[in-house]
## 1
Amino acid sequence: MKNIDSRGAMTRIIHAGQHVDEQTGAVATPIYQTSTFAFKDADHGAACFRGEPGYKYTRLGNPTTEALEQNIAQLEGGCGGLGAASGMAAVNMVYLTFLGQGTHMVGTESLYGPSRMVIENEYPRFGVEASFVDSSDAQNVADAMRENTKLVYVETPANPTLKLTDLAACAEIAHDGGAILAVDNTFASPYLQNPLELGADVVLHSMTKFINGHTDVVAGMVVAKDPAMLARLRKVHVNFGGTMDPHQAWLVLRGVKSLGLRMDRAQENAMKLATWLEKHPKVSWIRYPGLESHPQYELGRKQMRGPGAVFSFGVKGGLEAGKTVINNVEVPTLAVSLGGIETLIEHPASMTHAGIPAEEKLAAGITDDLVRIAVGCETYEDLQGDIERVLDLI
Ligand code: LCS
């Protein structure tokens, strides 16, 4: 499609990076399930390895993976993307590229558990230091900056606290300090938030979540704003080897086409459910960027096109009452992950964020009574009716 940049969000989601196959007319991008590519002759092979256009070996590039990379890069407003074997492979691609001996990172304290744990448990071996702060107040990020800070790494909305971080403010702080800003945009997806347009340098996703949306693939993506940064990331990525398989890329391409439709529907369900739960007598607190009670409701409206479909809440009676909820629901499934077409419910303190030491978890707001729900696209009345039934059991 011509002039893709000027098209609407749904059109870009469906068509960006997609081409009708010249040889066969196939409308869906074919799966190039091959590990290697034949060269016409020795000079052609040498030219490809010198950097001239042409596929060489799937870890270094594959047409199916590239179609997905172009799609997500286009949706994020970046110059290119790098498909990764998982969201964590994408996270580590960013860490490995921008951190090293003697460097320091400032991160959101409420990150997806392993994104924080890997920095605290593994990177000290390579001489990397980190400070995790409540980035919902940008001043905390500014105060944590050091001479050797090379990376500011934030997640917004954050997993599982749903706190928001002001991306424009953090971009300025990072750049003033000679660092780059990388943003995990998994919770919002490119449909609702574009960090690069707010000043970030790199954006990444666990595509396992909203982008794929069908709970059948684990995958990641990193998108860079400028070609020099993309080249740095690529060099690290292809040699560390956490690259994407073409079949995995094809499944995500299939999933992403309905991202806008799914997100609209899931978000509508989440908004209704959160509004109803907020007034429920058994609910002690609720945190959802779509509710005016969210401490950063205005920031959400400024930097996001919608509040998303994940929220956290606590029920009166704490952990035990929360367990009654998650053990007895029938419509939501008790499972980690989020962003699928089906509703999932989990207990972060003992599941997704279990590996973070207790005091750090508490300081980050991941309390024992916190129940996280990732709302899906089911019939709304079924969701509300089911949760009403289990709240009555408390
Ligand atoms: N970033 C965020 C914000 C995530 O929520 C996750 C996974 C990752 C990165 C890692 O992605 P993966 O390697 O799993 O594709 N979050 C999960 C969660 O909240 N429940 O289960 C996985």
## 2
Amino acid sequence: MDSESRLHTLLAGAEIEAAVSRLAEEVTRDYQDKRPILIGILKGVFVFMADLVRQLDFPLEVEFVRLSSYGSGRQTSGRVEVVQGLSCPVKERHVLVVEDIVDTGITVAFLIDYLRNEEPASLKLCTLMDKPSRRRVPVTIDYTGFTVPDKFLVGYGLDCDEQYRNLPDISFLED
Ligand code: IMP
Ligand code: MG
């Protein structure tokens, strides 16, 4: 049995595309005159960020930080490690944090706390997926693509032990 047969599609590529278009409309409405900085959290966000920004037709900047809370496998370690920090000033800028999935909330809450201290003009969060059943830290999400069930998801940038990031659909792994 190959590993693909353990995958069950939750969100097909076309559904994801529709959600990204809707999010892009919302972000355009709110940011088109603000020259925002979009800060993506690597690695999981790289596919979503690439699709989102190509639908934003106004001046903006793209930055990435790389944070890690997963040692390996499916369990969060609960500690956030800054693998690569922010390399641009955000003071008095409009900042939109872009995340693939908010699960326990630990990763994004850490980044938002850090950014708030840097005194941006505004600070909001856009996530492709929200998995609220697993939240351990409160997080305010301003733009949500999908609310998803408590399953470990892969594809469209999300991994399990660095595998599956390249798949165009979002699937869950059979236990
Ligand atoms: P949190 O700190 O628990 O909210 O987890 C956030 C990060 O863990 C996300 O940015 C993802 O990269 C990763 N993550 C959370 N849930 C999943 C999942 O179901 N599949 C793959 N990665 C996940
Ligand atoms: Mg991520």
## 3
Amino acid sequence: MPKPKNDDTKSPGICYLVGAGPGDLGLVTLRAKECIEIADVVVYDYLCNSAMLKWAKPDAELIYAGKKSKAHTIPQDELNDLLVAKTREGKVVTRLKGGDPLVFGRGGEEAQELRAAGVRFEFVPGISSSIAGPAYAGIPVTHRACTSQLTIFTGHEDPTKAETSIDYAKIAQADGTKVMLMGVERLEVVTKALREGGAAGKTPVALVRWATTGKQETLTGTLADIAAKASEIDFKAPAVCVIGEVVNLREELNWFETRPLFGKRIVVTRTRSQAGVLSQQLGEMGADVYELPTIRIEKPMNMMQFGECVQDCHKYDWIIFTSPNGVDAFFDLFFKLYHDARAMGGARIAAIGPGTAKKVKEYHLAVDLLPDEYVAESLLKALLEESGSVDNLTFLWVKAEKTRDVIGAGLTEAGGIVDEAIAYRTLPETEDVTGGRQRFLEEGADVITFTSASTVESFLDLKLPLPEKLKIASIGPVTSQTLREHGLYVDIEAEEHDIPGLVKAIRNYFTP
Ligand code: SAH
């Protein structure tokens, strides 16, 4: 039989065995992101942050390979067959693995199978939890003053092996820091074995669970008492266990767990494409943020009519933008119709708030009018004041399909001529694209954020039960009003009705 080749360049099929990092999305490599973006098939598992799946092509096939309970895990041999089969079909397959694919990640085994089958593969290393976990707990795995050696070992060997092949006495006698993965359930046995092997009972130990995520928890102790401490509070996997003098440095260097919103679970309900900034800013302050998009943006029903409005935009005295989405939809079309920005003519531009204004500026256009308060009433007032009289002035109002009519009605009443350019529609997000709904049901949240009345309504349409202590945060009075109309209590309302304002209000609520 001819030996299988790995360089079958005739087939476009390739399998990337990719490290997905320890959890924090910021710790995913650029190469990993690229592999997700170009993949036809993404196979991921329990330890991968599922937020990275949003980088996949909309039609990519997403396969969940493993759940925490073993019953739902695809057995390794089936998984290998799957990777081979999909790659053979000529597909680009990205196999995501928590941390690094080759640090207790079975990446080597999968690569052997792929090679034996004669299909192409590549390794993409990732940041392993074995180093990132300690770092996020404020523990440097090596430190000149106390260690110059690092041992990484598994506390959970392949269960099909007859007896342990790990020589704990040797590990105990090794100099420096030891990091154990997969060992939480066997903590008692392992710490005992290490002590019997000669390690001092007073050696400092730290357990870091769900390291680098908003759910991170750290428990410290010594080799003598850590197992009892962990079982007392039912400290569960996944956790990294760090053993050695370096653990003491945490007292001085703890940085991640001391941020203002650390440990607060916050839900972001915006559309998938818009959620990023809010999630990122809350995450920056240490919150455990997850996205539960309730609406999505679609093209308007009457694209032709929108096209005509955009085409004629230079004929107006004012163009009014009342959302960042409207700005994008407008300019997407504008630059399809025209290849010269001067086709805008001399129309002046009004924006409802800084988010919308920022979008306009991204297209290198200045905003002539921004109200003091970022609501329709203020914008209307500002337009009326700015123009003295709006009698016979023409306005093109770029808006969503369903919005309050404050601006249109107010300007018309004052004698202005208003054309509505319906730039997009917001529709309920029917699929649980981020897994956020499931998470909300399973884990609840401390805070839920609403950035528009439509997010409130679409969220309530989902009829998800609200956790008892859930706090509700609203971007401003209109959103709050909608919440109250549905009988909900608004705990937090932004003073400045934009994303930084909302983030500030949440922060102040928890750390006044
Ligand atoms: N390839 C992975 C390790 C896979 S083995 C890596 O390089 O990180 C699975 C073990 O990794 C878990 O039992 C746990 O010990 C550790 N682990 C992975 N992600 C973790 C995280 N975010 N926090 C704590 N431990 C983690």
## 4
Amino acid sequence: MQLILRYVKPYFSRLAGGMTCKFFGTIMDLFLPWLLAYVLDEIVPLKDAGQVYLYGGAMLLCSFFAWSGNIIANRVAASVARDATRRIRHDLFGKITRLTSREIDRFTIPSLISRMTTDTFYIYRMIGMIQRIGIRAPILLIGGIIVTMTLDSALSALLVAMLPFMGGIVWFISRRGVPLYGALQKQCDNLTRIVRENLNGIRIIKALSKTEDEKQRFARVNETVAASETKAASVMAVNSPTMQFLLNMGLVLVVFVGAKRVDAGLTGAGNIIAFLSYFTIILNAMLTITRILTMYSKALASSRRVEEVLNGAEEKRDGEEYLPDAQAPHVEFDHVTFSYNKKTPDVQDISFSLKKGQRLGILGPTGAGKSTLIKLLLRLYDVDEGAIRIGGTDVKDIPLETLRRMFGIVFQNDAIFRGTIGENIRLGREISVEEMEAAIADAQAAFVSEKGGLEGEVVSRGQNFSGGQQQRLLLSRALAGNPDILILDDAASALDFKTEANLRAALKKGYGDTTVITIAQRISAIMHSDVILVLEDGQPMGVGTHEELMESCPLYREIAQLQLGGEEE
Ligand code: ADP
């Protein structure tokens, strides 16, 4: 709740203005039945048409004030809710971009998405609602009781006697119903996750004829969500009808007792009519309060989920100023060990060092830990043991912005955004057209001119380019920044042999000072590297040049014989 208060605070004066309008509007609403009773019991018996018109006019005026006050207040409420939620979403998004990768793993992406969308929507709705009816309902409830006391205290006693029943329902709802919504939101996360996985992998699912399995998997989660919804809704379903029932019972009682009192001359008929109105107003206010409680509880669950993210651990951006030591190796892994789950290591005791401009090839089957090494180098995760140094400085001591700016990266399935080719290559950096064109040429992305040059259109996720074209687009992006360290994650896998050779030549020629790290499963992509690291199950099986490894590393020799055939022998 503190979260919501913190975000609403800047709009406090607007909020106070809106609430004042609401307050007076509501008082007018409350005043109207009283005025009606007065007209019926005191003015009508005078049989003076002028007086009746006068009071009729006053009633019209009251309704007008109530109407306009409520409209203004509701508009203000919507604007405060909109602005506060916009800021929550803004901060939340910013925070997500700064979260450590470990935190992102912990929350999971689908959960982050629903926190960003569904949860902020619940918060939006609650902020608006508290202002619209959160203040109105208590005024109607308390004010209504006070006014009825002055009208007819005996009838008021009837009303007060009913309140504990109402309170009981409110208590039941908040104890039983509210926790159910927390569970429901968790399951919705699950649903989002499955939909997301499915849609991302829709082609492969179709290709492998897994559609039926996936349908069933989805159906199971869908069932669970529906069951939770049913459970929560069936508790909540008790609420309104029970309140309505009590209301109707109360009205019957008021008419019954009221008629006897009018007969006995204890009270006027106008009073009874007004009392009926107040009775409805008061019980409706109670009903509204239970509705607010439901929504409040949903929003509370949501604000906790948002707060969790806002309190999540951030990447440490500080670090001393980076002063590279020209004597030290450019990139150095020193007995690096790391585990995602902190139980079994995913990479273990990795050591190698590269001079500026050298090329490293990392070879290994999927799941060997190749990408993990890159993530550690980029400091998406911190090593558990050992150290990674760039220019002699531990990456933990390099300011994060400086560190990340050193890299040009081509990941597999990397992000291509909707926009133009130029925008995708520049990616918000200050890069001139000439530099971009040079990068395109070096990346062997000659197809760009056929696609409309730098202004050419890119649809979402680059779907209007083939796999190989996408890779070269990403490569152009990586090269355009003139990086110190270039990382190619199987970047050449979709390139034909000739293009790959041209690319290697262009890299050698134009990027002599760039240290290049290539990840590959194919030996041909890395056999010319200065250093080759062979990985299997996170263990280093060998470090050296092609020739050295052919001598010393049985695994490398085996892969070479498999992939290159006899040509090396
Ligand atoms: P490669 O790039 O060689 O295919 P990875 O470095 O991606 O291999 O994966 C190495 C191991 O680490 C695998 O067993 C994989 O399951 C695990 N792993 C990768 N990313 C994560 C993650 N975010 N959370 C937990 N385990 C992970």
